[in-house]
Amino acid sequence: MTTVLGSKVILAENVTMVTEFLLLGFSSLGEIQPALFVVFLFLYLAILSGNVTIISVIHLDKSLHTPMYFFLGILSTSETFYTFVILPKMLVNLLSVARIIYFTCCALQMFFFLGFAITNCLLLGLMGYDRYAAICHPLHYPILMSWQVCGKLAAACAIGGFLASLTVVNLVFSLPFCSANKVNHYFCDISPVIRLACTNTDVNEFLIFICGVLVLVVPFLFICVSYLCILRTILKIPSAEGRRKAFSTCASHLTVVIVHYGCASFIYLRPTANYVSNKDRLVTVTYTIVTPLLNPVVYSLRNKDVQLAIRKVLGKKGSLILN
After folding, report:
1. Could you give the CA distance from residue 64 to residue 58 in angstroms, rounded to a whole number?
2. 163-175: pLDDT as tens digits
3. Strands, DSSP E only, in the chain?
4. Which of 42, 225, 257, 268 is the least buried, fewest Cβ under 10 Å from its Cβ?
5. pTM for the whole thing?
């Protein structure tokens, strides 16, 4: 018995705990990586310029100082930081042989990525409620969505997002990581990291799944109920022009919601064992790069108020330069 116990102690003492991870990213693509670097760099600059434009225009144009554009500005700010957590490191790794990320840095990357991602989910749900209040209860809208209420709701989204993120990150990094350290992804995401743990992860994965349901399914159902009420109200509007105008204010939001929730649900609302690196990596590219780019593009191309505000801001800057 003593020998058995002794051998267990020796085995425990000889276990090497992981202090750093290797991000495999797109290393399997070999010579294509420099081309990917150019493409992703262009997309990253487009995301930054698009979101900064939206934030600046909303700040400068007083006609956009409404709850809907207040939330859009916060969403654009969150998505700017959201991409900043992932893309610079990914771009460096595309041109680097050493794709190492330290254990603590990996945990921090996951914390901030999930924090901003969950905040975005909650903000999209909040924007759905804003459209519901504006269309279904126009007379009570100034009270329902006063600036004080908007500020509290936005703060609740951010606090809730980062508390949920802290919970998930704690569930992942409280597990022991012994020898395997190759993360088959371009950043520290939940599934590729938790698969490296050298213990049974079923309980932790189940709790993470519950968190995923709370931050993805619940807000999405809330948005669906809001839009059912909106649709019922719009159908009661007598004129076709009135119906078109009412629905046009929702079209941009719906487009972003479908892409964001669709991709995020595909990745996070299933067991880690079902993770398929290549296909999942493509879907992840969609919600880490395409969705943040889609937000400013959709809202600037489909929204006449934003288009007009951009022209006004550019016109003012042009006149100042001439003067």
Report:
1. 6
2. 999 999 999 999 9
3. 20-23, 100-102, 182-183
4. 42
5. 0.86
Provide the residue ranges of all domains of the chain, joining segments of one domain with +: 30-311
Longest dimension (CA), the chain: 91
State which amino acid sits at residue 126: L
- Top pLDDT among 222 and 63 is at 222
DSSP 145: T
- How far CA 315 is from CA of 137, 299, 309, 321, 322, in Å, comes to 36, 20, 10, 10, 11
For residue 38, give every residue at least 6 positions away whose Cβ sits within 8 Å of its Cβ, in sequence order, or none: none
Rounded-to-10 torsion of CA 255, 58, 225, 167: 90
Helix (H, G, I), strand (E, B) or coil at 177: coil
Distance CA 298, CA 260 (A): 13
Please give the structure tokens belonging to residue 18: 């992981």
Cα→Cα distances 87→22, 31, 96, 151, 292, Å: 16, 20, 14, 29, 12
Residue whose structure tokens are 């992804």: 185
In angstroms, the CA 154 to CA 145 distance is 11
pLDDT at res. 7: 31
Q: Per-residue pLDDT averaged across 32-60, rounded?
A: 90
Q: Could you tell me if 37 and 43 are in contact, meaning their C-beta atoms sit under 8 angstroms apart?
A: no
What mean pLDDT is predicted for residues 46-64?
88
Tell me the one-letter amino acid at 98. Answer: A
Whether the per-residue pLDDT at 189 is higher than 70: the answer is: yes
Structure tokens at 303: 């929204």
